[in-house]
Amino acid sequence: MSDNANDQTQRDGPVLRRSIGTTQLALYALGSMVGSGIYGLIGKAAGEAGSAVWLSFVVALCAALLTSLSYASLGSRYPRAGGAAYVTGRAFRIPIVSFIIGLALVASGLTSIATQSKIFATILADMVGLEQLSPAFIAIGFLLILGGIVFRGIRESMWVNVVCTLMEVGGLLLVIASGISYWGSVDYFQTPPERADTAFGVIVLQASVLTFFAFIGFEDAINVAEECKDPERTIPRGLIIATFTAALLYIAVAVTAVSVVPWHELATTSSPLTEVMRRSAPGIPPGIMTFIALFSVANTALVNYVTASRLIYGMAGQGLLPDHFARVHAKQRTPHIAVMALLAVSLLLVIAGGIADLAAATVLLLLVVFIAVNASLIALKRRAGEKPGQFEIPVILPLAGMAVCAGLLLTRLASSDWRAPAIAALLLIGSAALYAVLHGRKTPEL
C-alpha cells in the first residue's frame, strides 16, 4: 500500500496518541529484553562457558546489536505501527510475505502473553498462599487486568511498564551490589574441563547462542512508532540506549554470579540469581527476588500485549487484515478491537493448557523475522527513490545481521526436537492459508 493510502486508512477517524519520548521508549525496549529469561538463562549459559560466560554476553551483544541497528534505521525511515510487517511489505512488495511475517510476530506475542500469565499465576499463588485457587483462574484474572490497562491508554501502559522495568533493573542491580565485593576472586576465562579439547573461542560462541536470546525484545520498540514523539529520532536513540543498558547489566550480573557461586554449581541450581543472593547477602529475605520476578513476568506480558495489538492495527492499516482492526477508540485512543481480539485468544490459550512447544516454535519464527528485516533494509537502501532516514547504517551491518541470525537459526534447528520446527512450519502454512481465505484473488497494494 502506498504511503498516502496507508495514512488515509489510519486517519479516517481517531488516531493513536503520540506521547512516548526517548526515555519511555528505552525503558519499554529494556523491559522487554530484561525479562524473566535472564534469571534462569545465566545458569544454563554458565554450564556451557564456565566462568567465561560474561564473554558470551559480549559476543551476544555484538550479534544482537547488528539486527537492533537495522530496526533502528528502519524505524527512523518508516515509523509505522506494523513494524516488520510494514517494512517487509514495502521492501519486497509481496503481500503474503508481509502477512506471514506479521502473523509470526503476533503468534510470538500471544504465546508469550499466555505463558507469562501462567508463570505469574504460579508465582503469586506461592507468594500469598493461594494454592487452593486454580492457577488458570488467577491467570485469567491477570489477563483481564492486563487487557484493561492496554485498552485504557498508551500512557497508562507506559507508566506501568516504567514501574515494572525499574523493579527488574533494581533486582539485577541488587544482585550486582550484593556480590561486587567478590569480583576478582575467580579466573574469568575458565571453561568446563570436559571441554578441554574444544577451542576457547568456540566454547564462548556456542554459549552465546543461548545468551543471544536474553536480548530478544528490542524488536518490540518499532511497533509503537505511531505513538512516539518525533519517532525518526526517538526510535534509534531508544533502541540503542536499551540494548547497551541491557548488555552492561547482563555482563555485570554474569561476572557477579560466577564470582559468588562456582560456575558448575550455578549451572545446576533452578534459581541461579536467588542462590547468588542467598550467599552474597544472607540478610536479605530470599523472597525479594521472587517478588521482583513477579514484576518481570508482568512486564513481559504487558509489552507483548501492547506490541501485538499495534501489529494487528498496523497490518489492518496495510490492508492485510480486516479494516475494523485498524479502528481506534475515540476516547482512549487505543486500537480497542485489536486489544479485545488478543484478550479473547489469550484466554483460550490459557484455558487450553500446554503451549511450551508453540512458544519454542515462535522463537524459531522470530529468527526468520530478523533475517527478513535485515534483508528488507538492504533492499530498501539499494532502491532508487527511497528517502533515507534520520539514522542510517552501512549495508554491511544488515548483511552481517542476516548471517548471524541464519547461523543462530540453523543452530537452534539442530538442537531442537522435531516438534518446535514442525509447529513453526505449520504456523507458516496456516498463515498462508489464512491469507488465501482473507484475500482470495484480491491482492493488497503495498
How would the blueprint of this fold be written?
Elements: H1 3-11, H2 22-33, H3 37-49, H4 53-77, H5 84-92, H6 95-128, H7 135-152, H8 154-179, H9 200-212, H10 231-260, H11 263-266, H12 272-280, H13 287-317, H14 336-352, H15 356-382, H16 396-415, H17 419-439
Describe the model.
This protein has 446 residues and is mostly helical. The chain is 71% helix and 0% strand. It is built from 17 helices and no strands. The longest helix is centred in the first third of the chain and has 34 residues, at 95-128. The relative contact order is 0.21.
For this entry, give a set of tags.
single chain; 446 residues; mainly alpha; 71% helix; globular; disordered N terminus
In short:
With 446 residues, the chain is an all-alpha fold. The chain is built from 17 helices and no strands.
Task: Summarize model confidence as the mean pLDDT.
Answer: 88
Tally of DSSP β-strands: 0
- Report the total helices: 17
End-to-end gap: 3 Å
Helix/strand-derived category reads mainly alpha
Low confidence ranges: 1-11
**Major pleated sheet:** none
The share of residues in extended strands comes to under 5%
Write down the overall geometry: globular
Order of helices and strands: HHHHHHHHHHHHHHHHH
Indicate the percent of residues in helices. Answer: over 70%
Roughly how many Å is the radius of gyration? Answer: 21 Å
